Amino acid sequence: MTVTLSTAEPSSAPATTSRRRADIQGMRALAVLLVVAFHARLPIPGGFIGVDVFFVISGFVITAMLMRQWAATGRLSFRTFYFRRFLRLTPALALVVTVVALASVLLQNPYGAQQTTARTGIGAMLLSANAAIAHGAGDYFASTASTNPLLNTWSLSVEEQFYLVFPALLVLGWLLARRLRRGLLPPIALIALVAAASFALSLALSYGSTLGQSVTDFFGGAQSFAFYSPFTRAWEFAAGALLALVLDRIPVLSRSAAMLTGALGAVILAVGALVIHDTMVFPGLLALLPVVGTMLLILGGTHHTAGVSALLATRPMVYIGDTSYSWYLWHWPVIVFTALLFPGQGTMLVIAALASLVPALASYRFLEQPMRHLRPRSRTGAGSVIVVTLAVPLVACGVLLAGANAGWGLTSGSAGGQSGALAGQPGTLPAGEQQVQDQAVADGEVAGGEGGSLRSQHLAVRNGCVNTPLRPRTCTFGPDNPIGTVLLAGDSQAYALADGVVAAATGLGYDTLVTSHTGCPFLGRESSGVHNYPCRSWQKSIVAHALATRPDAVIIGNLSEGYVHPETGWRTAATDSGGRADSPEEAEALWRRGLDPIVSTLRKAGIGVVIIANVPQMNGYTDGTSLLSQAIGRRDFSVNRDESEANRQPALDIEQSIAKARPGTVVYDPFPALCDDEDCWAARDGAVLYQDETHLSVDGSLLLVDGLTAAITEAVASR
User: Fold this and answer.
1) Looking at domain 417-717, does it have CATH number 3.40.640.10?
2) Taking the model in full, what pTM does it have?
3) pLDDT at 14 over 70
4) Distances from the Cα of 399 to the Cαs of 96, 481, 574, in angstroms?
5) d(Cα 5, Cα 632) in Å, to the nearest integer?
6) DSSP element (H, E) containing 610
7) Which of the residue ranges 21-30, 151-160, 315-324, 520-529 would you say has the lowest mean pLDDT?
8) Is 50 exceeded by the pLDDT of residue 428?
């Protein structure tokens, strides 16, 4: 589609935007250096604001480009614009996604990590990686997100989603300008309106507004939506666009004023990079620092290359800026895979970040640049380029997803016997698990045959019962003719425990309703920490459902140890003012005040309660389930049992005292099933019991079946 506008209208493209600005390439270099340093865990806590710098620069550069085309030809071809954007971004992205998918087969585990990578890759190629990441992991800074080698593609999808609409907004503004004969006022007003609305929405959701809750819940909550959504990030692009639109309408800065403006912008960016950290609400008001700082840098270098602008325009900075897109694409997957191969070695992450320049420079030289200048002679040729570019990574990710769901033919039925050896169980599936597996196979839910998907991926994850509202219809599992129901609720521990709970409950004849929310313990109060999650409405909905339906038992599965140790920097039950506890004593008191009302309410309603005590924490454990690990031999991994028990003791004391005060409450201790006399095991003799440091694998959860069966039986009997 081509839109023709009257060339009699005043040109809106300032003369200074007709040249290639070396200082802007230097700004791109600065942005990518900030992001890479942050991901390499260098002491730049706010380095992630480099993405915001990219957003402002993109808004400025694209707007200036479209303005030049309008001023020179009076035409704007959407087809040409989008195809050139495709050639500029997609081939390099397709290469990275394909390589990451292939590497994931060898280096990541099929217990969820490979599925996450595959879905993110598919999302990246279909301009929706931000939605895929937000829905799957939520918090950008969560450990579950930081192991996704394609996490960085979220910003590319946000940018492309914005540009699906932005050129049309400019055209509308120019058409209004022609009709109303008001010069640049209509496009400026239109983009300013978009910026204001986006900024207002970003502020509201960053600070926990429940606006549009059904939509924001899909993104993992309001704050996650504010971080990942194009609607809450559009104002950053629009800020750069507005600057491009008004540059020739503002007085030319003197050399000294330009130097001062650039210096001020650099200082603001430096403050943002050094002061902002991942425990603060972002984007929110803090996003003004990178946005305003970048705008000042752009303004300072518009007419004079001096001071900071001169430094940014130096040859090394320009070269890094030219290759910044490729480096941005490659650095993160190289860091993630290096962390898998060399766990706990921070120096290796820095080396990986630098080493990622090798594939980045090769991609820039031999793919990005040639594709950028490609001009197919026909629409058929252009269509072929698009189809091939998209098809290769999509097929690679599809194969990765299918193979992971099937356990690559290596996970089926193997862990039952091996895991059983640790706890003295027979080498067969427990009866309840066998019933659940048989039901899944009969329903056609298990990919790859022989229950491979069920064994490698948690039931709750596979059926969308994590980070979603309570879903009785799709998140209830059990026998064909249940005699009753149990309800399992908790933070991410609940989904990791769910397979064992479902197997135990099914063996007893009960359905199991599962609901799990990352960072949200099942308590009578909020939790507070690095980021605020929308916990309270979810918690209340569980209690309301339990009181309305009267399940035979409610099973509580929380990472209780984590909430009573504020010194670790994670979360605690929230204070009355909504904050985080400052001391272990305060954290323990808040945990008791949050857990006891829930147990009391359920027991008064005649509902049995099972509290699953904290599983051993496997600090320092990394994946032992990848194909590479299986090929070279899985490494055993354990932690000292006495130390692990001591760490969780404050939480266990609280749970046991509540159970004593509320008869009919049972505390189930998983340690005997996961530990011998001296050690607790994450992986042993080929059996993989943990998917990461804190969450059991499917097979690990199945070790708890006998103990959970006894606990559920006791809780139901005491109703």
Assistant:
1) no
2) 0.76
3) no
4) 16, 37, 43
5) 65
6) strand 608-612
7) 520-529
8) no
pLDDT of 459: 87
Maximum separation of any 2 CA atoms in the chain, in Å: 86
Residue 426, classified by CB atoms within 10 Å of its CB into exposed (0-12), middle (13-18) or buried (19+), is exposed
> For 205, phi and psi rounded to 5 degrees?
-80, -30
Mind giving me the DSSP string for 134-195? HHHH--TTSHHHHT-TTGGGHHHHHHHHHHHHHHHHHHHHHHHHHHHT-TTHHHHHHHHHHH
- What pLDDT is stored for residue 217 in this prediction? 65
Q: How many other C-beta atoms are found inside a 10 Å radius of the C-beta of residue 252?
A: 13
Question: In sequence order, which residues have a C-beta less than 8 Å from that of residue 686 and are 6 or more positions away?
Answer: 414, 418, 634
Average pLDDT of every residue of the chain: 86
Ranges for all domains in the chain classified under CATH 3.40.50.1110? 417-717
Tell me if residue 450 falls in helix, strand or coil.
coil
Buried/exposed 96-121: b ≥16 CB within 10 Å, e otherwise: bbbbbbebbbebbbbbbbbbbbbbbb
Write the CB contacts of 632 (distance below 8 Å, at least 6 apart in sequence).
none
Residue 526: per-residue pLDDT: 87
Q: 528 has which bridge partners? A: 572
* Most confident of the following: 59-68, 134-143, 213-222, 319-328: 319-328
Q: Which residues contact 497 (CB under 8 A, 6 or more apart)?
A: 488, 490, 557, 612, 615, 696, 701, 704
Task: Tell me how far apart the alpha carbons of residues 93 and 157 are, in angstroms, rounded to a whole number.
Answer: 11
Can you read off the two tokens belonging to residue 46? 């706010």
Q: Enter the tokens of residue 381.
A: 């040729």
592-641 tens-digit pLDDT: 999 999 999 999 999 999 999 999 999 877 665 677 766 665 568 899 99
